[in-house]
């Protein structure tokens, strides 16, 4: 296990191993997403209160939790980069920011789409909405900081410090916003985790879509990281070999 | 502790010899607060509702805008490098620097706040909680702002970037700071909220200097 993890810290090994894993990951993700989405969006019974609207939760809920997980992943990678100077960790952290921001935006968008017919408004300053919005700002801040630095290493380290400061703040922000909201208005009853009212035929597709979206998230991170490896290691010999091999294959096909 | 005293003395001397650094954030605060009645109307009832929020948001922006003078000139004349190389405990030097910066940019805001809060028709029972919350809250803002400033001091155009980095981190302070005043106006206890703000201040004092040091090392190298 440690040996394997240690191998992954080398860009070349990460590139090779992720390349071998990729077809499996893509296949599994396509299967999970395909089954889950068709089942959840077309074949589950409508909710007795929300009608057909609730189906968007099949995408909304996993997107929101993946976005949050992505922030923690970015912070863990940041710590690994600062403590052990693992360059791979910085490359993964760099991939996390835009992917995490997109998932946060997806969660907010699907939430709004769900909110229009259900709440009658696409935005309210609810605790969850607000803290998700602030998390999107945190991702944007990390991306803005990295793009402001010319030096790749200095930018990576600066982003790592910012991510770690942010991760200390995330629970405080979440807690403060929840407190702020409950002071002004009663907690809205939008808990989707109320499993008692959700029979297995409702949550089984969510299980599929959840893991499918998680697979999609991993694919997005890995693809971005692989690009980053090729860009940063472009002077290394093995990159030249990989690229010329790909070129040859492509030319052969044409 | 000599180093703390020396740093405090140096920073305060520098600040008082270029009073613009002290006065400008204060003027920003005063002018920005005065813009609100002009923008939203002079209705006393409505102003009373928003007074605490206006004071807190403006103070937060004033603190953020004042951050530029914390490391900028030290970075430009190279004394920041000397500071990082010095054998003295860096944690205390940084803490003293941030503390003196708060003394010249944060404390005046706290002192002026009740005047402008009463101009915004904040009832009397809200004035003391407002001052207390600002007194505990603005040092947190300065410490967090110093982290952002340390990260961006090496960059040429950092003003708006700083805002993007640290304003999201200011959310809890703003929420609890205005919460203190709200509770006081609703005749609820404020001690618990002030204690929470105090806990955040202790957390910031113990952790923020470490992040500032790490960030400064990146910016200087």
Task: Give a written overview of the molecule.
The complex is a heterodimer of chains A (254) and B (221). The model of chain A is unreliable at 185-191 (pLDDT under 50). Chain A has helices at 2-8, 11-43, 57-84, 87-119, 127-148, 152-184, 200-232, 237-253. Chain A has eight helices and no strands. Chain A is globular. By secondary structure, chain A is an all-alpha fold. In chain A, helix 3 packs parallel to helix 7, helix 4 (87-119) runs antiparallel to helix 7 (200-232) and helix 5 (127-148) packs antiparallel against helix 6 (152-184). Chain A has one domain (23-191, 200-253). Chain B is mainly alpha-helical. Chain B has one domain (2-220). Chain B contains eleven helices and no strands. Chain B has helices at residues 2-17, 20-40, 44-66, 68-77, 79-85, 90-105, 107-119, 124-152, 159-166, 171-185, 191-220. In chain B, helix 6 crosses helix 11 (191-220). Chain B is globular, with a radius of gyration of 18 Å. The mean pLDDT of chain B is 91.
Concise summary:
Chain A has eight helices and no strands.
User: From the helix content, strand content and strand pairing of chain B, which structural class follows?
Assistant: mainly alpha
Largest sheet of chain B: none
Instruction: Note the total helix count of chain A.
Output: 8
Order of helices and strands of chain A: HHHHHHHH
Considering DSSP H and I runs of 4 or more, what fraction of the residues of chain B is helical? over 70%
Radius of gyration of chain B: 18 Å
Which outline of chain A best applies?
globular
Give start-end ranges of low-pLDDT stretches of chain B.
Answer: none
Describe the largest sheet of chain A. none
Number of helices of chain B: 11
Number of domains of chain B: 1
